Amino acid sequence: MKAIIAEKPSVAREIAGLLGASEKKDGYLTGNGYCVTWAFGHLIGLGMPEDYGISGFQKASLPILPNPFLLTVRKVKKDKSYVADTGALKQLKIIEQVFNRCDSIIVATDAGREGELIFRYIYEYLKCNKPFQRLWISSLTEKAIKQGFDNLKNGKEFDGLYQSAQGRSRADWLVGINATQALSIVAGNGIYSLGRVQTPTLALICKRYLDNKKFSIKKYYQIQLLHHKEMIGFKSVSTTKWEDKKLADDTLRTIERNNNMVTVTSIEIKSVTEQPPLLFDLTGLQKEANKKLNLSAEETLNIAQSLYEKKFITYPRTGSKYIPEDMWAEIPNLIRALQDRENCKQALSKIKWGRFNKRIVNDLRVTDHHALLITEKIPSALNAKENAVYDMIAFRLLEAISQACTKEITDVALRAIHYDFTAKGCKITEPGWRSIKGSFADDDTEPLQDLPELKKGDELKIKEASVLEKQTKPPALYTEAGLLSAMETAGKGIENEEERKALQNIGIGTPATRASIIETLFTRNYIQREKKSLIPTEKGLQVYELVKDQKIADVAMTAEWELALQKIENNEAVAEAFQKEMETYAKSITNELLQTTIAHENLPQLICPKCKTQQLIIRDKIVKCPDEVCNWVQFRNVCGLQISIADIESLVNKGKTALLKGMKSKAGKKFDAYIVLNEDYKTSFEFEKNKSYKRNGK
User: How is this protein annotated for GO cellular component (predicted)?
Assistant: First the structure.
């Protein structure tokens, strides 16, 4: 009898159905010589300080360096403490019974670092020593699963992957637990969470936000001219940028008084070849979905995971934009399959069969998994967001196998009196991959105009002339797409040239973890969304100011760890050495943080409005009375808006806040209102037209 363990029940059922294990039992399926069971994601994780007998945040206990690390069953919060998840305990018992009953194990958890860790932690926790093989597949189609079972791999081949996953897990524990406790002890005012990847990511957002705010916007002026030749209208713009509008206006009048003509002084024509984009890796898909669909990285990952489990796309948590040579033969079948999808038909008519571009094939650039692809199973009933993400992946495949786009770019220099002007034009000579969507310029670039036939010495009349007011642009606030790019290319921003070369292709986090890192920053109330931009909260900036010059916020160091973990995965480095380095680092940052001096903001001393005896405790998420009998409480995040200390003070002392703008109802509609304290000391909204309604739970 062989045991098979999948990451979740849905995948287990797919595999069991193919293998003829059709008899349903509690927590597993059996039949035809197989027992197929499943985990529910991470059933086992690293123990918390309490599991080592350390309770609360105590300076004397730091740094906490477990030896050995303890594994515990997943915990859930109950009342004010954490207890073992009963569902996890039950399933673990079933897995143990299945393993004990079988001679060997086939590991069918997701084929990646996290999937490997999920199984190995269970295997280690159960003290199992049965031999195991690995099912390594990139798609859940019947064909892929059958091929995977025909080519099972020795489990030992993935020891490097496990040690890398374990190293990451332990490093996150050592840095996260120690740094969070150290800063929280020093702050003495609630919990300040820090993390190995989370904190450098917060630093990226805060630095960009502050650079944006500090930027001094300057106005400048250019002259724009409109010309006509051969029934084609085109514009030229002055090369000079005037800071003084009067000078620009005077120049315009001078040009108008002198013939109102321009002369072509030079023409430069060059041919530009734009190669098609490569296929999507997960980060690429998340960036595109954020730009085009305004989806968060987490939403895109969840949609892609759903499409994968429905067998419509290949494994989404990939870091590669390429496919191996042996997959190239399957590409025409995938493209033919799209003929059944209505909104792909027009794009398919542009495909040049027999002339596919092989740029996406590169065995050396394929990591654990190849790039994101569709499967031969074409979806029919998806929701709007799933359809949009699926189409992105399908259209990217069609673009990637198309020919290059060639353009003729023309730069024209013109002169009016002694003032220089330029005009830029573009002519598509071979549409290539850009014909798939019919878009011939990138979204963030200005479309280039058509130009008539021009030659040096041509004199053109000025049909219209105007002064354009422009302004210098500050560094753009990060969107999620921009932040993902910054995380992906963190190594490129390093100032030291040698370090930058070594780390140029290394980012912080991995394609599989970046979405959850961003979501953690939201959960911790360190960042918030402002339209499409990510901006730090008051608390996020406070943490950044405390740690910005410390090792824990160092992007380069985090990128170096990613490189070290990659080496462990490839059996080029020893996991024990990495852990020793992380322990040394944990000691160093703990001491550094414990020596931090925090200038505590002068919080107002407010007396509870209800019991009128106790001083209120003010935290970043809550304001509450310490008297458990009184139990007055006011949450500081109301309908998506953080309530300032000044408004809390006004509510407690005057019974009403200032007008709060930009709150969001459950239906997603924005509204403005006052928060008022009623006679029973509960709060409600008061609108400017004096309409009010009570809020449940304040």
Answer: cytoplasmic replication fork
